Amino acid sequence: MEYSIVLSKVKVSTVVDWCVDKTMNRKTLLCFSLSMFLFLMLAACGGSSGDSSGSGNQISANYKSCSSNYFMTQSPISFSELWGITPLGTLNPPDHTQPTRHTYWYAGDPGNPPPVDQLAYVYAPGDIRVFEVQKVTYDPSWRPYQTDYSMRFFICDDVWGYFNHLMVLDESFEAMVGEFPNDNCETYSTSTETVTQCTKQLALDIPAGTLLGTVSYYGTLDFGMDDNRVNHTLANPNRFGFIRNAVCPMEYFVESEKDALFSITGRWDGSVQRTAEPRCGQVSFDEPGTAAGAWVLDPVDPNVFLESISVALAKDSIDPSLYAFSVGNIGSNVDAQVLTFTPNSSGTTNRAFEDVTPDGNVYCYNVGGGLSIALQMSDRSHLLFDVQSSDCSGGAVISASAIRLQR
Q1: I need a labelling partner for 29 at 20 to 30 A (CA). Which of 40, 189, 252, 310 fits?
Q2: Over the stretch 8-19, which tens digit does the pLDDT of each residue have?
């Protein structure tokens, strides 16, 4: 079944309505929005629905063959409005403690905040089949909006992508989607908010360049992609399965578009580009039998958002020559922080995570502020994590207050 969609502009008044209510007048809103701009850039939409977009179960369709890697032909946001793209693997604990499986696309010049109602249009990046649209509500909303939209789409049978944080759907596209059913909603909580997602299953064939909706200049567009033909190694296949098939969206564009997109991939504000390969970053750092990769608090509390009680031993997403501790809410005095260091290839100080094994040694890491972190693997599946109030110059031992982590 094919659908023809007539392009139409999104109502700006609809966007203004979401942030002007009985408790906030327009003058207050303008002042609030300027301060929120940098906050949202730095927060990078922590606690979003992005990482729940993949559960680890492969999704496939009888759509069209994946005969080539290059399926998309145009940037979803015009280059005249696109300021920067952050690569895969952004670390933002506690809600994105593990490397983020999607890219972030930023519209607008961060040095010149635009009017609050300034929007960037989002277009279909190629011929796609939209198979799911979600209406997402946040409570309480620390964002300057309470509701936005996510969508998932195939670009071929084994490759699908998603957008999160579309502010408003284009009127014609919204008409094609129709009403959202009340009996297909789910609610989950992060460390900062409760998120309710109402889902509509579809089969809309959309041509490249079709207007889908808008993204706010005061937020980001999450753009993620999965390829069933790619399988990342997971030390524990039951943890964080949503990254198993995650891939870089830019790799699926025609060469001219891909090169242009990589030229602005790096820091969110465009000031530093990632030049190391892979240019789009990395989502999986697990190396079974070593300390590298994902760990969770032991024992696991099933009532707590798992990623918020985890630790990632990973690399900086912009400069992967720096290794990084991304620490969730595990009860240490470096919770909700990212701490980086330059690794050594020998010894027990600042040793690369992939070299740390259950060999009986205690490994020490200088992380600044007069602090160090001591690590010791008791076996292949357990790690002791101990923050100490001294640097590594005197060596390190594991204290009785060390935190126990598991794969």
Answers
A1: 189
A2: 333 333 333 333
